[in-house]
Structures are given as C-alpha cells and as structure tokens.
Amino acid sequence: xxxxxxxxxxRLLGGLGMFLYGMSVMSDGMQKAxxxxxSGFLDIVTKNRFMAVVLGAAITALVQSSSATTVMVVGFxxxxxxxxxxxxxxxxxxxxxxxxxxxxxxxxxxxxxMLTVLKPDFFAPVLIAIGAFRxxxxxxxxxxxxxxxxxxxxxxxxxxxFMSGAVSPYxxxxxxxxxxxxxxxNPVLGILVGAIVTGVIQSSAASVxxxxxxxxxxxxxxxxxxxxxxxQNIGTCVTAMISATGTSRTAKRAACIHLLFNVAxxxxxxxxxxxxxxxxxxxxxxxLSPVEISIFHTIFNVSCTLVLYPFGDFLVKLSGILVKEPSxxxxxxxxxxxxxxxxxxxxxxxxxxxxxxxxxxxxATRSEIVxxxxxxxxxxxxxCNALESGExxxxxxxxxxxxxxxxxxxxxxxxxxxxxKLSLSDRQxxxxxxxLNTLTDMERVGxxxxxxxxxxxxxxxxxxxxxxxxxxxxxxxxxxxxxSFSLSINALEDNSIDEVIDTKRSExxxxxxxxxxxxxxxxxxxxxxxxxxxxxxxxxxxSNLERISDHADNIAGYVKSMLQ
Length: 564
Known about the structure:
Strand content: under 5%
Shape: elongated
Low-confidence stretches: 328-332
Order of helices and strands: HHHHHHHHHHHHHHHHHHHHHHHH
Number of domains: 2
Mean pLDDT: 80
Number of helices: 24
Number of strands: 0
C-alpha cells in the first residue's frame, strides 16, 4: 500500500465524517426551527394513517435520518404516547422522507456550465462562510438557526466532494468491477452487502451517499446498485432493533413492523429486478448514475408504501405473532411492589429514545409532571382526612406515597437534566428551567403533606382534642389549600391563564384565612378554650397548608411565564 492509497483512505474517512457531521448540524438547526410544533404534529396521527405517513416523511426530512425517526417511534410506543396502528404510518412515511438526502447528493452530477452555480463544490464553501460569520459575529446568546443550517449543508456537500475525490482514481480498478459483477448476478449477495454496510455505520443516508459517490466515479452497474439499495433499506432497521432492546413488548413490535415492511419491499422489488434483468440485460449491465439511484430509491420507497399501506393492520397483527407476550407473574403485590411498578411505568414513559426530539421529550416530561401533581394532590387530601379521622391506614398511605413522590421527582429531574444537555432553543431552555422549578415546589408540597400526616399521627397517639371551632377552621383552610394546588396543576396541564388567575385568588384567600385563624386561635388560648398541645398542632397544620398554597402560586407563576 502506497502513501497515495493511505491518503485516499484518509480522504474518504474525512469526507464521511464531514458528511455525517453536516447532517447532524443541519438537523439540529431544523429541529430548533420547528421547536414545540413537532409535539403538536403528533396529534395529527390520531386522525388517519395517511396523515401519519405524511408526518413520518416530514419528520425524517427534518432530522435527515429514517433510523432516528424509527427510534423515536419505538420510544413513543414504549412511552405510551403512540399506539402501533399510528406507528405503522409514521414508519412508512420515514422511508419516503429519507429519499431527500439522496436527491441532495445527486446535485453533484450537475455538469452544465449554465448550472454550475448549483453544483455543491461551487456554493458549499460560501454556505459555510455565511454560517460561520453569522455564528461568530451575530448576537450572542441567541440561536442562529440559519447559521447552523448553512454550515450543516455546506459540510454535507464538502464531505461528498472529499469522498468522490478519494474514490474516483479507483473507478476502473478490477476489484470494483469484479465485485459488482458478482453482486449483479446474485440478488441475495447484493442485498446482504447493502444491509451489512448500512447496519455497521448505522446510517442509510451515509451508505446511500457512499454508493452514489461510487456511481459518480462510474464504478456501479445498475443491477448491483439496485440490489445494494434494497439491502440498505433493510440495514437501516438495525438501529431500531437495537434501540428496542429492554423495552416493552409493544415497542419491540414497532421495531418488528419496521423490519417486516422493509424486508417485504426488498423481496418484492428484488424479484422484479431479477426477472427484468433477463428481459433487458443491456440496461441492467449499464452503469448507474447518482440521479438514477435517487430515482430508484424514491420509486422503491413510495411504491412500497402504496402497496403495503392497505396491509398496515396485518403488519400489526403479524408483529404480535412474532413478538411473544411475556408470561405474567402471579401473587399479591405489596406497597413496595406497587411503588416499583409505578417507577417502571415512569421510566418507560420517559424513554431516552424520545430525546431524539427535544420538543416531544419536553411534552412527555410536562405530562408526567402533571401526573406527579395529581399524586401530590391525593396525598394532601389523605393527610387532611387523616387529621379528622386519625385513621392509621390513611397516614401510612401518605408515607408510602411520599416515597413515590420522591422517586418520581428524582427521575423527572434527571430526565430534564438530560434534555438540558441537548441542542435546545432559548425557549426550550427556559421551559426546562421552569419545569425544574415546578418539580422543586411539588416536592416541597409533598413534604408539607407528610408533615400534616405526622401531626395527624401525633393527635391520634396523644389523644389531642380540638375545639369545634378549631376543627371547622382546619376543614375550611384545608379545602381551600387543596383547591389552590389543584388549580395550579390544571393551569400547568391546560396552559390556562384563567386558572393561573384563579390560583392566585385562591392563594390570597388562604393567606387571609391563615392570618385570621391564627388570631382567632390566640384568642381561644387566652380565653382557655384550647389547650397548649392542641394549639401547637393547630398552628403547625395551618402553616403547612398556607405554604402549600404558596407553592401552588409559584407553580401558576411558572405557567404564566411560559405563556408569555
């Protein structure tokens, strides 16, 4: 091996690296531009499967990776955000969306002098320069989405030029001609080569671009290129299959549907091409161009979707047969078991695959924070009821649920920290901060509910008795504090400014009630109507309830700031 060979190999690796990096940068810029609109698009798939196909194609064109889209779908299904019937459409659309990259690569074949300005090696350096100047000299602290997009596209095309330059000297090499001749006569071998290469580099876009680079050098016969392209569509399933490891059965079925869809399409087209190669051998023995790869890639993916679209429900049923249901475990569940089950559910809903789309990850986290708020609300209610009844089971339920609240808070906090490390827009970063603040307030509300339960236990064990007036006051402020907290959770769930206002009004009422009750209580003490032991407990309880209302007002304030 000569120094020139080593230099060409390094040039090929460098070109592939720039291509993949450019796709990543461009994808980040486009996702930031889409922002929270991506999470709103998920509502579309509940209407019909056709819209799901359109959404799958759009998201894949946005993130420039069908593998990334399918991994997200596995995460959505695992988290319960999406069902399998909806997932089928997005998986089909993802295969159509991934053809965009192939068409971008095809621009390298433009040869007309009049269209030279459209060639990547002409405008790519200018795009990088524009992006770099915008990022370096633009306003600090702001996301320059156009700058990221320009740099990403520029690196994609510069990388393609590097790869093309590295491969072109070897276009007439006997190694290439012999290898492609063997693949052209053996469909199974061609499909396997495409699948293995794509599975190893974990990117169908990159493997297609490598094939187009070889085609640009005049080294790929049509039959061989078609078979390899079919295999590339199977190889892209590897990423989703790996990501489904350790997920629920439903998520594994989503990955299985992706594999079934692509294998069925490859077999169908493989048979047609093999038969056609005998009818028109001169055509299939001719050399393949990058544009022809793009055309075939598009025809293949669109045709597969059209043919298999009516069989979406069948694919769902077939995946259920192939992916077996795990055997259920019998036996009663302890309180600790129930907590573990709830924790597993939360971990499943906060699936790390969803982090591929920060907007949807934020939406899922917000939904779980609302669920946490509902759990906290139940604890407040049980703690207040325990004050009246002294029921030991209620008190223990509060303690057990507080452990769950702490677990959920920790998991949600860690997940938000992971989101915060992603490529986020300024608006999304602000939302992460507000969610972390909300979690802090909810955790403290949970602590106050536990404090009230401890007071209930003290009352029960020490036979503390309140006056009729004191009991009435505790019931009144307890109901109002619960109302305040529930309104704040509703405001968070609905993004409602009206409920934010109602929370503030309710909090003001609780503040006033706490002051008045404290004064009335001091009066009862001075008149000898209440003993000191009951008085201390009474003041502690109304103080905890007033703080619960304060935290509710904080949560409502965070919602208000996110609406502005």
